[in-house]
Amino acid sequence: MPHPVRWTRVTAAIVLALSGAVAAFGTIAPSTDAELLVTKASIVEPLAIDFAPAPVAPTERYVREERLQRGDTLASLLSRIGVRASDVAALTQSGVLRRLKPQTTVTAELEGSGALLSMSFLIGTDLFRVEPGSNGYVVNPVPGVLETRTAFRANTVNSSLFAAADAADVPEAVAVQLADIFGGEIDFHRDLRKGDRFAVVYEIHSLNGQQVRTGRVIAAEFVNNGRAHRALWYPGADGKGAYYTPSGKNLRKAFLRSPLEFSRISSGFGSRMHPFLQTWRSHKGVDYAAPIGTRIRAVADGVVDFAGSKGGYGNVVVIRHNGQYATLYGHMSRFAPGLTRGTRVGQGSVIGFVGRSGWATGPHLHYEFHVGGEARNPLTIALPAAQPLSSRELAQFQGHAQPYVAQLDLLGNARLARAD
Ligand SMILES: [Zn+2]
User: Fold this and answer.
1) What is this structure's pTM?
2) Could you tell me the distance, in angstroms and rounded to a whole number, from the CA of residue 37 to the centre of ligand 1?
């Protein structure tokens, strides 16, 4: 369908009210109707800005955890962690990371220069450690017994999810998991409100007394805009596992609420843009402001129908999904390697990266959701849900879930008591 042709200069006043760091950002957004876009900043209290982490001095050491995701290559994973190019080449050539599987989390210790000091990852219950040797990188199993304990944390979101997580000593990896788990229910780039709350029960793995990895979230509650969502991990009969509500509904939806990967940087960027981005009504799409290079995910399984450059959309991908559904992602800086018409994509797989190609003066993703060839508002549409638990499994699940539900209740009460 043709991209809207009319241009509207978006009110700049709100930009000034925000940080000087973003004052230079302006957006000219296409609009289909004559009316000027009226910003409605007063409806919600936008979350405060989460600035990108301060630069790290070249010799300073820091630790990062990242997950190997669908669509990742070893090189893209290592670059995301911040490993410098020469070490990326040495690591990929050495073969020390060939055991890594999708969804494996690696913990890397780096210097500010990007030099890799060490890296570790778990395969099953075995911990492996990668280190520079006398002749390139080597990988060795770390002897010891892996211990798993459970952590309980809760907090209220005042400025951003990551700030709230930091304040409660919740690892970044857990905050990202929360966004993943509730990603079919809540658009973490748009829906978060001051006063939202979370409570979370998660695993911490340690070896020889040293914490080696943040584990899985086992139970979580997220109260968004006054509405409580709960999720409980259940391994299931097939051992694959999934998150369910306490009543046994699968939280995995056929469509993700947000096409943008949720990260510390994209979350801050999106929320600061929230007040003045285009409404869906005025241009039949939803805009997500995000730094160039932020990863864009397929919101559902499907087949790429178009990947190329097209007028105002710039670099655009169209994906056809089951039934009558199609989604469109515009203004990309580049596509995921190998992505072309006919490529099969899975939900959550990376299809490209945020840019400002086409008619966009500021970096953002233009996202459209089509049902039967018509653009619909993805922010309000009811989306099909995944299979619930069978009645046979439900009883077993509820037995399994009961102690965690009790823990969530307890965390909720503790939080209320503190607030009083
Ligand atoms: Zn747009």
Assistant:
1) 0.71
2) 13
- Cα 312 to ligand 1 centroid, rounded to whole Å: 10
Helix axes 74-81, 85-94, angle to 10 degrees: 140
Compute the residue count for the chain: 420
Distance (angstroms) between ligand 1 centre and the Cα of 286 equals 6
CATH value of 61-143 in 3.10.450.350, 3.20.20.70, 3.30.413.10, 3.40.50.920: 3.10.450.350
Q: For the ranges 9-18, 146-155, 230-239, which has the lowest average pLDDT?
A: 9-18
Å from CA of 20 to ligand 1 middle: 24
What's the gap in Å between 36 CA and the centre of ligand 1?
15
Structure tokens at 235: 């391994």
CA distance 266 to 263: 5
Going from the Cα of 391 to the center of ligand 1, the distance in angstroms, rounded, reads 44
Question: In this structure, which CATH number among 3.30.2350.20, 1.10.268.10, 3.10.450.350, 3.90.25.10 belongs to the domain 147-253+388-419?
Answer: 3.10.450.350
pLDDT in tens, 180-193: 899 888 888 888 88
pLDDT higher than threshold 60 for residue 234: yes
In angstroms, the CA 180 to CA 271 distance is 18
Distance of CA 367 from the midpoint of ligand 1 (Å): 7
Looking at this protein, which amino acid is placed at residue 281? R
Query: May I ask the CATH architecture of the domain 258-376?
Result: Distorted Sandwich (2.70)
Ligand 1 centroid distance, CA of 63 (Å): 37
CA distances from 162 to 116, 168, 264 (A): 25, 10, 6
The percentage of the chain sitting over the pLDDT mark of 70, rounded to a whole number, equals 80
